[in-house]
């Protein structure tokens, strides 16, 4: 399958909303929009510090990965520091397992490495994507475990960038 990846732009807020629904494992956009702690990941897409990419196939989007900066006074789930954006990703269920998420992740990391010292994320401990994150340099932040909104355990991971290296290894 041939698909294209392009940067998310200010006008792509509707894409971010739809992908947020999948990233948060919710069944509807209405459910996401009713939860302020989730909706904040899409509201006003394109604000300072927002960065991301969307995968397209046959005239429709099939996945997206994005970063959003938070502050100490306005923390996201995976907040680590004001200078470290939080990563989110989703691929439509029928397109999973084809490497699309990996390509989106690598594109975000490649773009972020010259701008930010690191990228963080929050993940459920039973999410099989943890292995992908570990292979791409993310490590668990010890002591970050919390009971998530579904009653399971989630924790933060961080991918630090080398200030002297210009590539992802």
Could you walk me through the main structural features you see in this protein, from its secondary elements to its overall organization?
By secondary structure, this protein is an alpha+beta fold. It has one domain: Aminopeptidase (3-Layer(aba) Sandwich), CATH 3.40.630.30. Helix content is 23%, strand content 27%. It has a four-stranded antiparallel sheet with strand order 1-2-3-4, with helices on both faces. A hairpin with a 2-residue loop joins β2 and β3 (60-68). Residues 164-169 have low confidence and may be disordered.
How would you describe this structure in keywords?
single chain, 169 residues, alpha+beta, Aminopeptidase, four-stranded antiparallel sheet, 5 helices, 27% strand, globular
SS-based class: alpha+beta
Shape, principal axes of CA atoms: globular
Mean pLDDT: 93
Radius of gyration: 15 Å
Query: What is the total tally of β strands?
Result: 8
State the helix count.
Answer: 5
